[in-house]
């Protein structure tokens, strides 16, 4: 597949894509971008979330805006506040090196006065939900007389949500000779009506479910009791000393509590949420980007705009309500051709949501086990063994040291020497009482029985087990630190 350079994008946009770890265009991007860049025409994109449709319209849109012209030139309509925020996040990232460009998202559920204030400055691109936009147009805070591009994203969802009349009204405020780019996962009759009525000779691009992006993401879930989620998370962290993960929580409080629990137990983790000051957030992000912090615990909103591209894992401590959020969360791993794991912690009440995501996004979640003590010990020792095998010797040890040690070890047989070296490494892994945290289907129906017994046939429930021993704060890149005191802004 061709890479982004051959599509005709500007160096500024290419640089931003490079930062994001986007290597090659997805099928819808490869089809839509060159055609939207070269000709001014209408477009119908039959594509769902996860196909890269936002960049398919967002990148050519950025190239077509004149930052020197102080008017709204592009409007992107989205059915929900969540989708609007996600689009805005992506447009912000794509336009990182276009400093003169102003982008604003406006949606219901947030103070309109702040949005009106932000609209005093010319916003070249507005991303909006239909209801709030009509409100803002009514208050003369938004003017669309100079609109050149109208994007209708998830048009079928907009109609499902009853925005048909709102759309008709908005379209009356826009100039006739604009371009309209309509994206929809399905093409019901009502969408065809919009196409026939408002669009002019649109070209059609289409991708199917199999062409969703991020083939390299393994979507997994574990089944567990709600109150065991943090214990399970620690097992996954213990399993992989090279882990680099974002853990998504639902609320700021959950985010802070989980971060504090992990930090208290010596894990190199920290929180990112809206109650932190900008300076605190910048500090956390700097450490995370510089690989000094392997675990970032975040809310969806706070994680917006994080352009990190080398995560090994995304953990969903709680599932988002909106499928687009799941796509964007999990899309933070498996970038730049690498593999990544998106793992959902599924409590008893979360299964229906998981099923919804499966059908909406066309992905298959694989059930995996929460590792137990034996798994952790085995995996850690296996990794260590592999490192020993790969270790270069020639030229590393000075002759006089090797001579001395050969003399010292001469009294030991080969097995004895190996045994001692392995034992030394094993001592770094501490024995602890670790129960099986997996919940089987039969357990789910027996409420209140907890996660003990049943699922794991290896029979080590409650017996002695192992936890990676770690000095407080000594995680791979770490240094000793106390849990940070947080200033609340309330
Ligand atoms: P979308 O379908 O637009 O909601 O995008 C799905 C996810 O894929 C988002 O997290 C994007 O940042 C990501 N993405 C979009 N295009 C690419 C690409 N060409 N390479 C890698 N990731 C991409």
Note the main attributes of this structure.
single chain; 490 residues; alpha/beta; Rossmann fold; seven-stranded parallel β-sheet; 16 strands; 15% strand; disordered C terminus; binds adenosine monophosphate
The residue ranges in which pLDDT falls below 50 over 5 or more consecutive positions are 445-490
Give me the number of helical elements: 19
Look at the structure and give the CATH class of the largest domain: Alpha Beta
Strand content: 15-25%
CATH arch. level architecture of the largest domain: 3-Layer(aba) Sandwich
Number of domains: 2
Quaternary status of these chains?
single chain
What helical percentage do the residues reach? 25-40%
Q: Overall pLDDT, averaged?
A: 84
Which helices and strands occur, and which strands form pairs?
Elements: H1 11-20, H2 27-38, E1 43-46, H3 53-64, E2 74-77, H4 81-94, E3 103-106, H5 112-118, E4 125-128, H6 130-138, E5 149-152, H7 155-160, H8 164-172, E6 179-184, H9 189-198, E7 203-206, E8 217-223, H10 229-239, E9 245-249, H11 252-264, E10 269-272, H12 278-289, E11 295-299, H13 300-303, E12 313-316, H14 323-330, E13 340-346, H15 351-361, E14 366-367, H16 373-390, H17 399-409, H18 414-426, E15 429-433, H19 441-445, E16 464-468
Helix pairs in contact: 2-3, 3-4, 6-8, 10-16
Bound molecules: adenosine monophosphate (AMP).
Adenosine monophosphate (AMP) binds at residues 22, 25-26, 29, 49-55, 90, 213-214, 327-328, 331.
């Amino acid at each position: 597949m061709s890479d982004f350079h051959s599509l005709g994008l500007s160096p500024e946009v290419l640089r931003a894509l490079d930062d994001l770890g986007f290597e090659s265009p997805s099928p819808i991007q490869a089809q839509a971008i060159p055609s939207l860049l070269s000709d001014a025409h209408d477009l119908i994109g039959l594509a769902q979330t996860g196909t890269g449709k936002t960049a398919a319209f967002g990148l050519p849109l950025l190239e077509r805006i004149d930052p020197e012209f102080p008017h709204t030139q592009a409007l992107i309509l989205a059915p929900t506040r969540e989708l609007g925020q996600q689009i805005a996040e992506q447009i912000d990232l794509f336009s990182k090196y276009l400093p003169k460009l102003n982008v604003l998202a406006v949606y219901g559920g947030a103070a309109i006065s702040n949005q009106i204030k932000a609209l005093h400055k010319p916003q070249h691109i507005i991303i909006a939900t239909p209801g709030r936009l009509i409100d803002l147009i009514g208050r003369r805070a938004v003017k669309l007389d100079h609109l050149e591009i109208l994007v209708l994203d998830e048009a079928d969802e907009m109609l499902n949500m009853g925005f048909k009349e709102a759309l008709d009204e908005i379209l009356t405020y826009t100039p006739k000779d604009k371009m309209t780019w309509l994206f929809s996962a399905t093409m019901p009759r009502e969408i065809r009506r919009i196409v026939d009525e408002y669009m002019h000779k649109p070209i059609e691009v289409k991708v199917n479910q199999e062409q969703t992006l991020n083939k390299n993401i393994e979507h997994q879930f574990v089944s567990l009791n709600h109150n065991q989620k943090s214990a399970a998370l620690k097992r996954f962290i213990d399993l992989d000393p090279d882990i680099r993960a974002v853990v998504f929580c639902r609320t700021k409080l959950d985010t802070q509590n989980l971060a504090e629990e992990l930090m208290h137990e010596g894990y190199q983790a920290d929180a990112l949420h809206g109650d932190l000051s900008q300076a605190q957030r910048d500090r956390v992000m700097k450490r995370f980007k510089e690989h000094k912090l392997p675990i970032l615990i975040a809310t969806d909103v706070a994680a917006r705009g994080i352009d990190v591209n080398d995560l090994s894992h995304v953990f969903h401590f709680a599932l988002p309500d909106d499928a687009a959020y799941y796509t964007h969360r999990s899309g933070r791993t498996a970038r730049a051709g690498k593999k990544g794991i998106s793992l959902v912690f599924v409590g008893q009440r979360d299964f229906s949501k998981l099923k919804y995501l499966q059908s909406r996004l066309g992905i298959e979640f694989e059930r995996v086990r929460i590792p137990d003590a034996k798994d952790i010990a085995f995996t850690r020792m296996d990794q260590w063994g592999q490192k020993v095998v790969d270790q270069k010797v020639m030229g590393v040890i000075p002759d006089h040291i090797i001579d001395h040690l050969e003399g010292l070890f001469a009294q030991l047989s080969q097995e004895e020497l190996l045994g001692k070296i392995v034992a030394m490494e094993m001592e770094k892994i501490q024995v602890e009482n670790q129960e099986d945290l997996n919940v089987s289907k039969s357990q789910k129906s027996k409420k209140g029985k907890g996660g003990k017994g049943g699922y794991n046939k290896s029979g080590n429930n409650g017996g002695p087990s192992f936890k990676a021993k770690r000095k407080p704060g000594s995680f791979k890149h770490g240094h000793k630190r106390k849990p940070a005191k947080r200033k609340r802004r309330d």
